[in-house]
Amino acid sequence: MAANKDEFSVKQISPKLGGERGARNPYGPTSSHDLVEQMEFLYVDVIRAIKNSDVDPGPCDPVVEITLGNYKSSTKDLPVGPNMDWNQVFAFDKTKGDVLSVTLKDRLTNTVINKSNFKLASEIPTRAPPDARIAPQRYPLRNTKTGFYLMMSVWFGTQVDEVYPVAWFSDASEVSTCVINTRPKVYLAPRLCYVRVTIVSGHDLISTDRNRTPSVYVTATLGQVTLKTEVSSGTNPSWNKDLIFVASEPLEGTVYIRLIDRVDDQHEERIIGKLEKKLSEMTPLKVPSSAPALFYDIEVEPAGDSRRFASRLKMKLATDQAYHVAEESIQYSSDYRPFVKGLWPCLLGKLEIGILGATGLKGSDEKKQGIDSYVVAKYGNKWARTRTVVNSVTPKWNEQYSWDVYEKCTVLTLGIYDNRQIFKEDQANDVPIGKVRIPLNRVESDWIYACSYPTLKLGSSGLKKMGELQLAVRFVYVAQGYARYSAPFRWLLPKAHYKSPLSVYQIEEMRAEAVKINCANLARTEPALRNEVVWDMLKPKTNTRYSTCDMRKVAALAFFDLFLYWPSLIVWLAIYLVVVPCIVLVGLSGLHKFLTRKFWNKRENPRPPLIVNDLKLWKLESPNLDELEEEFDSFPSSVSDVNILRMRYDRIRMVCQRPMILLGDAASQGERLYALLTFNGDDQLASFYCWLICVLVALCWYNIPMWLWSLYPIAYWLNFTPLRNDMPCGISNFFRRLPTNEVLF
């Protein structure tokens, strides 16, 4: 069945934001919550119950019930302090009723002690931060002869109020003991670092059987991960093997190294010795370099065995703090900074996200009418989680978060999840509903993007829309001058990745280990960010391009679109200047046209959505269900019971995967070139940089004689010292940051 194109497209919306909607703000943010709609709440802060000294109430276990319209909250499931205190803030939607009723009951007899009503229109004040919190008061309620006063405070506020993250909302009144799992939180995951244990060689190794030449290998263990070298024979074996681990700050772990002798082919093994080394004792490498190779004495096994010669290992032990530890797929990476803070680039800007709400959410349980949904946003090592809106398919969060941006060629990831921990913790895993990814290199600065993004799920039955997530996005530059305009030309990764690169296999192995460490670290928070949520947010892309795209048709459409789009003619003119430099002065008209579009006409042009779900490019407009079933089939295949057919089927799939990845990478490079030639990118400066470089090359080509140009390839072939540079050039770094049409779900 053909997919509806409009159903999966990004739509612009017009919410009533706190700031100026869709307009440029040269002075940056106007308030801390100007990207969300204002939500008014009635806050009731119940402090404690106070006994009246003039009246003896007798034995009593007080409980407070608060009612507004059809919503009721109670302190019956809260722990009571020694002074009958609760210190709990309750939040109600002020539009749900006209009268607030506060009732004090006895838990033992379930009788009403006293009661009082408050009219919302006249008796409750309004508080707006940064005003201080309203001081609690003694409320005698109606009948003071019962022997109790109630200490509490009542006021009107919004989500800006500092009690919002800890309030107990009326829609979650039945959650009781697991209310903490419904509250909004911000998490900071510890930064990660590589630990490199290089086993160089062994010296004076003595086997447990003195009549046999030892066959030795070395194992190193950090946490739950164990790596080992190959088996090498002799008393002085050599390995030169790098064992790389992942550790999180504050780097307080211990590496356990064992020297093991393999006795025979039946894998009978005996431990020759062991060594323990703390991470704090290793060499911290804060620049691309290598740790010194040192000799370490091995503690002989069994303990107390005295031998003439002590076995030694020659090793390099270091914490590689100049590397960036990848925890996300490279297509969705949100951070490229190394572990050591001194190597971080300058702060580029601020990213602000207003999570407004969602519509039409669909859960996995069809019998359940509503969904207990919350949103998790991840950028860098900062995670943000909204509150859980209970039993609703159109939740409203209206929460705003901000991140520091050091690199604009990054991706913000947001996921919607169904909370299964609100009635009984650890009863079931939280269920993912859908994700939205926003590439920052498509976000222009000082603009507010208010859009509704479809959350798509691709499965064996086809492409499904699980709802829409409404967001307001704004990016504001902080860096100015050289720091801002040179950012597209700097290295994307830290220098160590180019000087001493890791293999793709090593990076993927370390990425999987980094995900496990992040899951463990965030699971220790309160409330915990659950493992299944962290794993789903960091899950790598499984389908590069879902199926074989008609590359010729796509290329032809892009080619004609390129010529029909008038700004690209300016870039074509600049490229033509390189070939025919005699008309270099004509290129100044291109600069005039660019400045006219960039500065004078910018306000008149409507802002396009951040991302465009191109179903035609992904071949999801009319998917073949048989191909989808094959795409999502497991490894090994479960289609047939014939072993030979299964083996051939799996082999063909593995072989076909490689050209698919190659085609996807080639399409990404073409999309970057297309963005360069159509003024589509980082503040539309990409095409200006291209025009400027072409004009400069044309000037040099026109004024420098040809015989002088011919000296450069000769000098490059002779490899003079000034030309020896193994780092990527600025043009390559700039081209790598251009946007692509990667699948963003």
Automatic annotation (TrEMBL):
The chain crosses the membrane at residues 563-588, 688-709. Keywords: Calcium, Membrane, Metal-binding, Repeat, Transmembrane, Transmembrane helix. One of its GO terms (molecular function) is metal ion binding. It comes from Arabidopsis suecica. This is C2 domain. Belongs to the MCTP family. Its main location: membrane. Residues 23-139, 171-293, 326-453 form the C2 domain. The keyword Membrane applies.
